[in-house]
């Protein structure tokens, strides 16, 4: 059996003096689409920031398979494209940082990644000229430009109209199926969750732990965990 893409063991993380999650453990298997979900303020994005190394845990360990240049790519919430750079230059940033490729090779790779995400010919546009869905596609292209086996996506379909959200979901499924890319996403969008995620963890801010883990469709229909059932069915929380 292959080594997991991510192994989290006994992780504790805080925001200031407040402990957000305490002693959580989980794995992400290679080639799967794995989701992190929970109510607002439960620590989803903070957990993502720990996974990608932007914040250090209070305790526990995070192991990500791979070596050398960053073994993963990241799509930050809202895309985080630099407005003063063209889409092509935004996508090229990781190549400029981690490779010594000539300009012609960089341009060819950027065009190929933009074509892969459905933005063929958009390399000379500025981010402000793109729709919200197109900006997220450009951010995904940047996450893919070093050809990592693992990418992290923070709220990839949030804030989009239903048609654009479905398009992003289909793109994620295509990347997973055709490239075998392992994908970890933070989301609160239930239609996207049920459409694309193979497994998920649901975070509980009250217990500061993982309330449930597994197939989100099965968890949605499981009434043995009322809090998780409410979360996955958008029901008011029980007193």
Give the percentage of residues in beta strands.
15-25%
Rg value: 18 Å
Low-confidence stretches: none
The strand count comes to 9
The span between the termini is 44 Å
Shape: globular
The helix-and-strand class reads: alpha/beta
| Range of helix content | 25-40%
Strand order of the largest sheet: 5-6-7-3-8-9
What pattern of helices and strands is seen along the backbone?
Answer: EEEHEEHHHEHEHEEHH
Main sheet attributes: strand count, strand direction, barrel closure: 6 strands, mixed
Number of helical runs?
8
Overall pLDDT level: 90
Structural summary, described in words:
By secondary structure, this protein is of the alpha/beta class. It has a domain at 80-147. Helices cover 36% and strands 25% of the residues. The strands form 2 sheets. Strands 5-6-7-3-8-9 form a 6-stranded mixed beta sheet, with helices on both faces. β8 (199-204) and β9 form a beta hairpin. α2 crosses α3 (103-116) and α2 (87-98) runs parallel beside α4. It is globular and about 55 Å long. The termini are far apart. The model has no long low-confidence stretch (mean pLDDT 90).
Structure in a nutshell:
The chain is 36% helix and 25% strand. By secondary structure, the chain is α/β, with parallel strands linked by helices.
Please give the structural blueprint:
Elements: E1 6-15, E2 18-28, E3 33-38, H1 44-51, E4 59-64, E5 72-75, H2 87-98, H3 103-116, H4 132-144, E6 150-154, H5 162-179, E7 182-186, H6 190-196, E8 199-204, E9 209-214, H7 216-221, H8 226-232
Parallel strand pairs: 3-7, 3-8, 5-6, 6-7
Antiparallel strand pairs: 1-2, 1-4, 8-9
Helix pairs in contact: 2-3, 2-4, 3-4
């Amino acid at each position: 059996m292959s080594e997991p893409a991510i192994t989290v063991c006994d992780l504790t993380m805080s925001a200031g003096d407040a402990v957000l999650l305490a002693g959580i453990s989980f794995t992400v298997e290679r080639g799967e689409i794995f989701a992190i979900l929970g109510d607002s303020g439960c620590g989803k994005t903070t957990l993502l920031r720990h996974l990608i190394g932007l914040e250090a845990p209070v305790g526990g360990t995070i192991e990500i398979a791979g070596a050398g240049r960053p073994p993963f790519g990241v799509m930050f919430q809202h895309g985080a494209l630099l407005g003063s750079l063209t889409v092509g230059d935004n996508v090229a940033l990781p190549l400029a940082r981690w490779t010594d490729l000539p300009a012609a090779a960089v341009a060819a790779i950027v065009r190929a990644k933009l074509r892969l995400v459905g933005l063929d010919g958009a390399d000379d546009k500025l981010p402000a000229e793109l729709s919200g869905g197109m900006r997220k596609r450009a951010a995904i292209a940047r996450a893919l430009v070093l050809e990592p086996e693992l990418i992290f996506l923070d709220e990839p379909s949030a804030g989009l109209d239903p048609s654009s959200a479905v398009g992003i979901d289909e793109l994620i499924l295509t990347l997973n199926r055709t490239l075998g890319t392992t994908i970890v996403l933070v989301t609160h969008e239930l239609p996207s969750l049920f459409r694309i995620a193979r497994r998920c963890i649901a975070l509980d801010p009250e217990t500061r732990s993982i309330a449930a883990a597994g197939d989100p469709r099965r968890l949605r229909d499981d009434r043995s965990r009322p809090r998780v059932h409410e979360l996955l069915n958008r029901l008011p929380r029980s007193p």
